[in-house]
Amino acid sequence: MGRKDAASAKIPMDQYRKQIGKQDYKKTKPMLKAARLKAEAKKTAPGIKEVSLILVAILVLLLACYAFFYLNLSEEDDLGLEKDGN
C-alpha cells in the first residue's frame, strides 16, 4: 500500500521538465523560430580562432617564401661582389 503513495509523488526532475515545457509553449512561433535560427547560425559560423589560425598560416608561408628568395638573391650578390673586389 505504501507504493501507491510513493508513485503519486513526482520527482523534482519531472517537475522541472514540465515547467520548461510550459515556458516554451508560452513563447510565440516567431520567437521560437528566431531562437532556432540563431542557434543554427552559431553552429555554422566559423569561429575567430579558425579564421585567425588560417591568416597566421598564410602569413608564415609568405614570410618563409620571402626569406627563401632573399637568402638566395643575397648569396648571388655576395658572390658577385667578391669577384669584382679581386
UniProtKB/TrEMBL annotation:
One of its GO terms (cellular component) is endoplasmic reticulum membrane. It is found in: Endoplasmic reticulum membrane. It is a single-pass membrane protein. The chain crosses the membrane at residues 51-71. Its main location: endoplasmic reticulum. Pfam families: TRIQK. The keyword tRNA processing does not apply. The keyword Methyltransferase does not apply. Coiled coil: none annotated. Keywords: Endoplasmic reticulum, Membrane, Transmembrane, Transmembrane helix. InterPro entries: TRIQK (IPR024842). Belongs to the TRIQK family. PANTHER family: TRIPLE QXXK/R MOTIF-CONTAINING PROTEIN (PTHR20583), TRIPLE QXXK_R MOTIF-CONTAINING PROTEIN (PTHR20583:SF1). This is Triple QxxK/R motif-containing protein. The lineage of its organism: Eukaryota, Metazoa, Chordata, Craniata, Vertebrata.
